[in-house]
């Protein structure tokens, strides 16, 4: 009987933490900005940080759930302008960072494995982000606005001439920079917030 109560209490606490971190991630989605010279449709936000913190404190599955809650909150607050494609991309790329980082850290919870996990997550996120942009996201935007307009937004980056070069010189460097920034902030915050997340 005691074991059942403890298990139920743990589940309730985990769900509460997921909800709180998901809500925080949803709010952070709106604090986004462009990093010159990247095109304006590539915006950096810090919404993956709560998901990474949750993945390290509770586990990789919880990190993915936080990403899902974040997107759900986004849909509630502001309707999609991309028929859900942008939100799907955000969720997919976020999970590509959070899931491997959480899985690697779960095996051996040290600062070194956290760094290795985030490095692996950044690389996987970059690869998946490149594929998603090449096959799905940019073609959808190109149909809506025209490929010339998309390439015009990226004209500040040398070497961009078509979809392939946009992904190579735009998408890939942007996601690498994003992964590094998010990882550095997460590692700086984790020690401070982990006592709260482990309560």
Describe the structure.
By secondary structure, this protein is mainly alpha-helical. The protein has a single domain, classed as Arp2/3 complex 21 kDa subunit ARPC3, CATH 1.10.1760.20. The protein contains seven helices and two strands. The protein has helices at residues 2-28, 48-57, 60-77, 85-107, 111-145, 147-153, 163-197, and strands at residues 33-34, 43-44. A two-stranded antiparallel ribbon has the order 1-2. A hairpin with an 8-residue loop joins strand 1 (33-34) and strand 2. Helix 2 packs antiparallel against helix 3, helix 2 packs parallel to helix 4 and helix 2 packs across helix 7. The longest helix has 35 residues, at 111-145. The chain is globular, with a radius of gyration of 18 Å.
Keyphrases for this structure?
199 residues, mainly alpha, Arp2/3 complex 21 kDa subunit ARPC3, two-stranded antiparallel ribbon, 7 helices, 2 strands, disordered N terminus
Mind telling me the C-alpha Rg? 18 Å
Strand line-up across the major sheet: 1-2
Shape: globular
* The CATH C-level class name: Mainly Alpha
CATH architecture annotation name: Orthogonal Bundle
Helix-strand blueprint:
Layout: H1 2-28, E1 33-34, E2 43-44, H2 48-57, H3 60-77, H4 85-107, H5 111-145, H6 147-153, H7 163-197
Could you give a quick summary of the protein structure above?
It is built from seven helices and two strands; from the N terminus they run H-E-E-H-H-H-H-H-H. With 199 residues, the chain is mainly alpha-helical.
């Amino acid at each position: 009987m005691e074991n059942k109560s403890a298990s139920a209490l743990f589940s309730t606490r985990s769900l509460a933490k997921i909800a709180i971190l998901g809500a925080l991630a949803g709010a952070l989605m709106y604090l986004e900005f462009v990093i010159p010279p990247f095109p304006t449709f590539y915006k950096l936000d810090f919404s993956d940080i709560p998901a990474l913190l949750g993945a390290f404190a509770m586990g990789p599955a919880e990190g993915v759930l936080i990403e899902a809650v974040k997107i759900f909150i986004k849909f509630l607050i502001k309707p999609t302008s991309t028929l859900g494609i942008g939100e799907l991309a955000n969720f997919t790329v976020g999970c590509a960072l959070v899931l491997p980082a959480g899985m690697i850290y779960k095996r051996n919870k040290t600062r070194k494995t956290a760094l290795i996990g985030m490095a692996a997550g950044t690389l996987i996120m970059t690869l998946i982000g490149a594929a998603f942009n090449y096959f799905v996201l940019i073609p959808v935007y190109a149909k809506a606005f025209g490929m010339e307009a998309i390439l015009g937004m990226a004209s500040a980056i040398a070497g961009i001439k078509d979809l392939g070069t946009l992904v190579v010189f735009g998408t890939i460097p942007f996601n690498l920079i994003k992964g590094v920034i998010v990882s550095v902030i997460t590692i700086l915050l984790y020690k401070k917030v982990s006592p709260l997340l482990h309560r």
